[in-house]
Sequence to fold (149 residues):
Amino acid sequence: MKKLVRLYHFIISTIIYFICNIAIANCSITGADSLSFGSYNPLDSSDNISQSNITIDCSGRRSFTVKLSTGSSADYSQRKLYNNSNPLNYNIYLDTGFTSIWGDGTNNTNFYSNTNRGTDVIIAYGKIPAQQNISQGTYSDSIIVTLEF
Fold:
């Protein structure tokens, strides 16, 4: 009977621990700036570079991840900005060297992860490759930011 009571106590303690841990976990995206590239000159030999901030506020939990969607191109290897049906290639990266494509961890992409609590400002690095033959106009894309904790 003593073993049964100890096991019961352990199970109840474990359930209470998990309920408390879940109840105090709170994470939210408190800011996400637009990734604005400004004017693009197709004759320029330099890539068009930009960056923006995503602000995450997490308390009561030790880890979270931030993943990005493919946008309207449905492909991480080369995201596309569109002006009607006219595409302009670009991508979003986790690093200033533009080697780590920010995605969801599939298809050779990576995602942001952090084990700290509190506020975290993450920088998204964007690049439009130089000398693309495009039509004049305004190009845009919509990216979904997913916060998992």
User: Anything to note?
Assistant: The domain at 26-148 is CATH 2.60.40.1090 (Immunoglobulin-like). The longest strand covers residues 48-59. The chain has one domain: 26-148.
